[in-house]
Amino acid sequence: MKKVIVLGAGLVGKAMAIDLAKNFDVTSVDINEQALAEIGSKEIKTLTLDFTHTELLKKAIQPFDLVVGAVPGFMGFKTAKAVIETGKSMVDISFFSEDPFLLDELAKNNNVTIVTDCGVAPGMGNIILGYHNKRMKIHSYECLVGGLPVVREWPFEYKAVFSPIDVIEEYTRPARYIQNSEVVIREALSDTELINFSGVGTLESWNSDGLRSLITTMPNIPNMIEKTLRYPGCVEYLRMLRSIGYFSHEEIEVKGMKIKPIDLTTKLVFPQWKLKPSEEEFTIMRIKIEGEENGKPKKYEYNLLDRTDQISQTPSMARTTGYTCTAVVNLIAGNRFSRKGICPAEFVGEDENNFTFVIDYLKDRGVKYKVE
């Protein structure tokens, strides 16, 4: 049985460790002992480790066949680099801000496969686009995605299943999209639109920097955009906090002490964004692909509406993100995807067998994409 180490035991890391334990010898690693204790599976070994200690991290990784990355984004690039230097392949969901292709040569020299941004979006959206890009001439790609609590609580009407600091990055990082084959850079939280979704109602979309690697790997597609979904009105509170400076990393002086506003914000806001025990949430995603297939106009629309698993109490965002990642772990472990270097998720989707495997893997776990 192959050995897999999961770096990060948050809600998504926990879901991935439990899922992988069905087929692998799994060890979950985190600095938070309480998070490790909450995994609650006798089949999963645990290890307490501070990932910032690079040499200790490399030592911990060494005995394993595969690595899964589920650390906060600000740690992701450095962690991926350490994994590559250890000579191990990795599937990662850490959503780090640095260009992953800066590690491509290092990964190829170490003969390893590093699948980046392998969550729901980016992740599953990339896999779907990668599949169709090999089979048709695509004119436009649009991805709308969000994870939200069922019960709306003022003022944010939002709960964070993955690293909250990465959520704030979405509110501040400039959004890039492709329009008429040109890169357009807009302020995050811009160009809001109200859109109705069956089973949910009206949500508000806004620009976020979700295209990621697609800007580099899909130069042939003239129009691509990804937008984040929230309940209507939420964006106004976020714009207000950002404009005042609550998301700033620049130190300010308060009563003779220097603090970063972002540190105060996270201290105050994160408890409000934490899911309560048994609180339900859902993930919604709509992908539209338009172009030409076999010489004729063709449109594809993928719709996902996934909810918290009531039996296991696994949040939907942990399922939709985590199980995409664990599906690809199974592909690599079975030598079904062996491309070396930095491999964004769209590379995985290019092969029809791998695309079908991921779709079926998710379906078997109740995550179902409806295609029109």
CATH level 1 name of the largest domain: Alpha Beta
Structural class from helices and strands? Answer: alpha/beta
Low-confidence stretches: none
- Characterize the largest beta sheet: strand count, sense, and whether it forms a barrel: 7 strands, parallel
Q: Please name the fourth-level CATH homologous superfamily of the largest domain.
A: Dihydrodipicolinate Reductase, domain 2
User: Approximately how much beta-strand content do the residues carry?
Assistant: 25-35%
CATH architecture of the largest domain: 2-Layer Sandwich
The name of the CATH topology of the largest domain is Dihydrodipicolinate Reductase, domain 2
Strand order of the largest sheet: 3-2-1-4-5-6-17
Count of separate DSSP helical elements: 13
Structural shape:
globular
Please report the distance between the alpha carbons of the first and last residues.
39 Å
Radius of gyration: 20 Å
Q: Level of helix content?
A: 25-40%
> Mean of residue pLDDT?
95
Count every beta strand, where a strand is a DSSP E run of 2 or more residues. 18
How many distinct folded domains?
A: 2
